Predict the structure.
Amino acid sequence: MKAAVLEAYNHFIWKDVPTPEVKEGEVLVRIQFASICGTDMHIFPGDFHPRTPVPFIPGHEMGGIVAEVGEGVSGFEPGDKVAVDPIIWCGECPACQRKHYPACPRLKLLGVDLDGGFAEYISVPPHMLFKTAPHLPDEHVALVEIYGIGFHANNRAGTKEGDTLAIWGAGRVGQVILQAARTKTKGKIFLVDPAENRLQIAVNHYENVIPVNPKKENPVDAIRRHTEGNGVDIAFEAVGHAEEIAGVFNPVRCCVQSLRGGGRVCVLGLGDDPAPVVFKELIWKEGHIITSRVSDGEFTEVIGHLNAGNLKPDALISKVMPGSEIQKAFELVQHEKEKYLKVLLDFR
Ligand SMILES: NC(=O)c1ccc[n+]([C@@H]2O[C@H](COP(=O)([O-])OP(=O)(O)OC[C@H]3O[C@@H](n4cnc5c(N)ncnc54)[C@H](O)[C@@H]3O)[C@@H](O)[C@H]2O)c1
Ligand SMILES: [Zn+2]
Ligand SMILES: [Zn+2]
């Protein structure tokens, strides 16, 4: 098969590699599309070294069609359309024993810790596969994983009908949090990002989304003004490496300041710098800070909503390129970061 092998950091080669053997208890999937993630953009230049020794095949957001079913596998047949859940938890640690899988300290991901889906085929055990409706466009199947992150964040935060939300970051993660939230509440959603084009994508596709550019107005003031001074039920941080903006606190502290009494902050950004919070501001509200990591079985929830047409995957797709042009695709995203949300690679 052909695969996109990261031969050295910053250097993909599209080349022939052995097609994975379909071992007993595994399913061979013919990948149709895979999506480039922010994490891939860090793996590419070697930021994840030594976790990702090269050469290897990245790619953890992928969908495809079952090509072959190994011995002892039931419930799948050739032709089934499937999303691949890349998460491998250990099953033995205290977190796994309590079925709190995203908290597994030994958690591994296909395409990060092992070869992944930037290839024509992948062979995985059936518990990592989730069937979609046959009518779902192949492009959309590759977005199930990132949607899982958005749904998991909302489930961690307990978003429910009537809730008013604020989301810091209108990038890939912020957009899927917003889309997932819209399946749960019709309430106001404030979206905070200095990138106007990214705010616009959400506003063009959804009602009752209030864009806030923190370079133009103080986001906490704007949120208070639009909520009769009360603040929001839940504030999500989906920024990570935050751009410093004069006169505005870091996103996590802004989230805390935007809450109503008893509200919840849900932090997802994986920045390396501390994000100072004045705890008095949270304690006065008896607020909560929670975190959200990857997803935990939300693939089923996502696929239900995609099958039913409740999500807007096309709003996320900025560009589709052939798998063979992966090097060019990564360079494009690297050089014009803000222009692209999801770039899909076509492995058909
Ligand atoms: N917890 C998880 O499960 C999980 C999963 C995937 C990614 N992440 C992390 O989430 C973060 C976001 O990922 P992404 O792929 O959406 O990145 P992204 O670059 O697409 O989006 C980040 C956005 O934040 C905006 N931004 C920068 N500074 C800001 C500020 N001061 N205020 C408001 N907005 C600001 C940027 O303009 C950009 O649009 C990253 O740190 C990533 O590693 C977490
Ligand atoms: Zn990802
Ligand atoms: Zn574990």
